[in-house]
Amino acid sequence: MLETTQWINDYFDESSDAIMIFKDTQLIVSNHMAKELQDELKMNPQYLVEIADSSAKQKFSSTDDCFNCIIQNKMKQISIPITLAKEMPHPLPYFMIYNVIDSEKHVFSLTLKSRGTINRMDQLAQQRKLTQYVNRAYEDERKRISEDLHDSIAQGVYSAIMGVRRLNDSEVSQDEIKKLTEVIQSQLNDTLTEVKRMALDVRPSVLDSFGLLAALRVLAKRLQENSGVTIDVIGNADTSGLSSDIQSVFYRIAQEAINNALKHANAEEISILLVSHNHFITLEVIDDGDGFDVPAHQTFNGHSLGLMNMNERVKALNGAFNIKSVKNEGTTVTVKFPIA
Amino acid sequence: MNPEQPNNLSEYQYDYQRIVDQIYQKEDFDFVGIAMQSQAPPHSIKWSFVAGNSNERFRKIVLRSGIGIAGLVIRTGKPFWDNDLTNYEYSSKMYTPIAQSERLQTAAAVPITNNLGLIDGVLLAGYHTNTTVSNQTAQILSQYL
C-alpha cells in the first residue's frame, strides 16, 4: 500500500505534463514539471487560474462570479489552448486542462500538456492511417486485377477454346462453321480489348514511350468512352525533362481526380490542363460538377484518404497540391511542381 | 436520322431508327436506344440510334462487353433488366454509362442478332422514374425486332 502511494507520487512528480492542484485558488501541490515551468518561464499559477476561470465562464455565461457555480454546472473538464513564453524567441504552445477533483472543498487541478507532443501524436496517427490506406489500396488493386483476369480474360479464352473444339466436330455444317468462326473471333477480340484495358490500368506504357501528355490523352479518351462525359486534354507542356516519378504522380492524380469527378460529381465536362512555365509546371483537372465541402473531406472519414494520399505524393516530390471546390459549380484540382 | 450511324448501313436488314422511334411513340419509355457493333475494326459498339435522349452524351459512349446491362446483353446474348440502376458506382461491373448519362432509374435490354444468329447490337429502353421493368418488358422490346 505504501509502495503504491510511492508509485503514484513518482508518477505525479515525473509526469511530462505540468500538474498543479489548487484549493480555493491557492496552489497546494505542483509536480516537478510545473515547478520547472514556474522557474524558467516565470509562469504564474494565479494567472492560469484566472484563465481557467474566465474560459469556464465563457462556456457557461449564465453563472455568477464564483467557482461554485461552475461546479454546480456539473462541468468536469475544460481544455484551453494557451501559449507560454510568448515574449521569448520560441513560444511554447500548451493545452491547459481544468479538472474538478473535489467540488465540496473546491479542489481542482490544472494540467499543462505540451501541444507539440499532441501534434506529433496526431501526425503519427495520421501517418499510420495513411500507410494502412495505401496498403489496403494496394491489396484492393491486386484483388481487382485478379478478378478481372479470372472473370474476363480466362472466361474469354476458355469460351474460345470450346469454340475451336466444336470446329473439329465432323457433324458441324459449313454454315455453322462460318458462324462459329465469327463467334470465336468476336470473343477473342473482346478478350484482347480487355487485356489492353487492364495493361493500361496497371501501368500506361504510353507514359514511358510517348510522355505524359500522350498518356493523359489516352486516359481521357478511354474514360470519356466509358462514361459519355466530355474529357478534354489541353496543354503545350514539354514533359521530356520531367523525372519519371513526377510524371507518374501527375498521371495518377489526373486519374484519381477524373475518377472522383465521374464517381461523385455528376460532371458534364472535365478539362485537364497541363501547362509549363519558366520554372514550374502545373496540372489542373477542372470539372463542372456538384462540388463539395473541401475542409470536411480533409480529415479522416474513410472516403477522403484518396485526397490525402494525393497530397502526400506531391509533397514528397516538393510539389504543391490544392483543391478548390464550390457547391454546384465544380471542383478544380491543381498540382504544381518546380522545374530546373 | 442520327449522323453517327455505322457507314455500312445497307448491311442492316432493318431501319433501326424507325424501330427506336416506333417504340418511343407506342410505349411509355423515357429513353429508347440501339447500340450497334461497327463492322470495321476495332468493332466498337456505340449508341447509334436513340429517341427521348436528354443530352448528347450517348454519342461519346463506347460499350464494353460484359460491363453494365447493355454490355451483359452483348456478352451473353440474353435479355437483362435492372430496377435500381442509380445504385452502381462508376467502378462497378453493373455501372451502365447510358443509364447514368440519361438518368435512367430502371431499364431493360435485349440482344439484336444478325442472320447468322450472332449478336450485332443491343436494344435498351428505360425510365427516369422508378417504373418496374421485368422479363415482360424485355419481351415487349423483342417484339419490335
Would you summarize the structure shown here?
The complex is a heterodimer of chains A (340) and B (145). Chain A is built from eleven helices and ten strands. Chain A has 340 residues and is of the alpha+beta class.
Key terms:
heterodimer; A: 340 residues; alpha+beta; Beta-Lactamase; Heat Shock Protein 90; 2 domains; 5-stranded antiparallel β-sheet; 5-stranded mixed β-sheet; 11 helices; 10 strands; 55% helix; B: 145 residues; 6-stranded antiparallel β-sheet; 4 helices; globular; disordered N terminus
What would you note in describing this structure?
The complex is a heterodimer of chains A (340) and B (145). By secondary structure, chain A is α+β, with helices and mostly antiparallel strands. Helices cover 55% and strands 22% of the residues of chain A. Chain A has two domains: 112 residues, Beta-Lactamase; 137 residues, 2-Layer Sandwich (Heat Shock Protein 90). In chain A, β3 and β4 form a beta hairpin. In chain A, α5 packs antiparallel against α6. The model of chain A has no long low-confidence stretch (mean pLDDT 83). Chain B is of the alpha+beta class. Chain B has one domain: Beta-Lactamase. Chain B is built from four helices and six strands. In chain B, a hairpin with a 7-residue loop joins β1 and β2. Chain B is globular and about 35 Å long.
